[in-house]
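Note to self: user wants both folds in one dump. Writing first protein now.
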Amino acid sequence: MVHASDGLLIDQEGRIVLIQRRSETYLGFWAIPGGMVEKEETIEEALVREMKEEVGVEVKPRKILGVFSDPDRDPRGRVISTVFICDYEGELKAGSDAGAIKLCTVEEALTLNLAFDHHFIIRCYQNWIEKKGSYWSNKSI
């Protein structure tokens, strides 16, 4: 089992940051930036490292949106992901796994070809904006 840390990065206008995947899995699809937690890291340390590597910014986690653990959420194998809602500082620039970066509204994001279960996660964020609360794989929104 692998753990991942993903960041819903929110800019000052309330738009979210998405990356276009360069990796073989979901190549060309849009995704919430994030990555795998390394053996010696906390999930929060992985979040900070992955956001710096993928989009070039420093992040400040504000809240945990939820934990997403559907066994079928990642075709590469069993991945449990903690998704943080974050503020960020710095200039966005595509790094490691990111072919491109897009700032968009939640509504725009939901019209894109999104990787993994990221449609569901963004819909959870959309619901969080109105109702707050935490979300997870089998909680209906």
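First done. Writing the second protein, which came from a different request thread.
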Amino acid sequence: MASVNKVILIGNLGADPELRTTAGGQAVCELRLATNERWTDKSGATQERTEWHRVVVWGRSAENAAKYLAKGRSAYVEGRLQTREWTDKDGNKRYTTEIVADRLQFIGGRDGGGGGGRYDGPPPPRDDDAPSGGDTSFSDDEIPF
């Protein structure tokens, strides 16, 4: 039976991107993206809830995200959900679920205006030291700011 693991988000960064390099030399960038939901409750009052998402971007796209995105900027993300497990220093099993991005589009220019850069390449590697699949770069001409 076929299955689908696809996430699409449009939101705002809650912090500056965090770029690091794996032991194998692969760039990886972590984004904290906020999405908002609004509704009217039974009393007619508008309610709002913010959901925070951990997004991981790999390769050249990670480098560009760190270079061009900042806290407050908007971004469009497509990717897949991935849950990781590890044991903390006290021996407890810990879990985190994140979106591994295979498409990232910057929404709005540096001044908050229109335009945006885009990464639309092959999926990222599945582990920290895996080589990137295919060419994940895009030219400066694709970044309109």
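Dump finished. Worth passing along: The longest strand covers residues 93-107.
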